[in-house]
Design goal:
This protein is α/β, with parallel strands linked by helices and 336 residues long. The chain folds into 2 domains: 173 residues, NAD(P)-binding Rossmann-like Domain (Rossmann fold); 154 residues, N-(1-d-carboxylethyl)-l-norvaline Dehydrogenase, domain 2 (Orthogonal Bundle). 44% of the residues lie in helices and 14% in strands. The protein is built from 15 helices and 12 strands. The strands form 2 sheets. The protein has an 8-stranded mixed sheet with strand order 5-2-1-6-7-8-11-12, with helices on both faces. A 4-stranded mixed sheet has the order 4-3-10-9. Helix 1 links the parallel strand 1 and strand 2. Helix 9 runs antiparallel to helix 10. It is globular and about 55 Å long. The chain starts with a strand and ends with a helix.
Length: 336
Amino acid sequence: MTRRIVVLGSGSIGTYVGGALLSAGADVILIGRERMRQRLLQHGLKLSDLQQREVRLAGSDVPYHVDPHVLASADLILLTVKSSDTAAAAELILKHANPVAPLLSLQNGIGNVATLRQLLPDREVLGGMVPFNVVQTDDGRLHRGTQGELMVQASPSLATWLPLFVSAHLPLIERTDFIEVQWGKLLLNLNNPLNALSGLPLKTQLSQRIWRRCLALLVDEALVTLDAAGIVPAQVTKIPPRRLSLLMRLPDWLFARVAAQMLRIDPEARSSMWEDLQAGRRTEIDYLNGAVVKLAASLGRTAPANQQLVMLVRQAEGGAMPALDGKALWRQLQER
């Protein structure tokens, strides 16, 4: 019997993951906003990645819905909504979905899984981590511009689904230390607002030492906070978390040699937060740098550089701030 995957929140990441599974022969339904449905009808489903793999499907062959009632047919739910929409998504799942269907959260930030478990106490909720970036290109493609493998909270209920994800070139790496994995990923995601405020492609931004120094400052502050909380962030890339800020501070010429793998990024790739600002949408800043600030406050501490960045992104959300250059941001973080 065919078992169905329903992706709730099919924007860039959700449509990429769901589309890859669909092309591998999985029974998949995507649920998202009308603008993405129209994009698919206009351009079809076109996926690409750094390995030059491509997927092309006619828009009419992609089961994309805006009606959440189709959740009722799910045997596995992948949740890819923005963190600020987690509670609303949980309400839809509670109302429409089969209560025995596991829920795998593939969301950015800290706290989503805890929120889902609180609101859906009778459902199996698993954490997941998407390490790569997906950008919507002008020619209608969804392009995976960075590397990395999906990591998920280990569970026997995922066993029958693992081969499908392998076939879709999205193998699930099961982890038993998922809280630590989330914090390890978050250290990397501290660059998302820097990229968004810079207005630069990721590769260009990371190639400039002044921007990397800003990131190193944020990472050091986060690591001090995690130490105080007794949390040891997991290594989710080839770079150990404790060496990340040291690497970021290297001169440009040396960084380009030592971090060549990190810079293997599509030249036009940008963070999803940049896309949110361009579209006038609320960002996930509260669940990224804001998570560091919140953890510090729970310990009676402060994280002023991360707090400053939260404030700057809030200003940018209101359209009140142009793109910053690295030196200007560095001064603002230093003057906090």
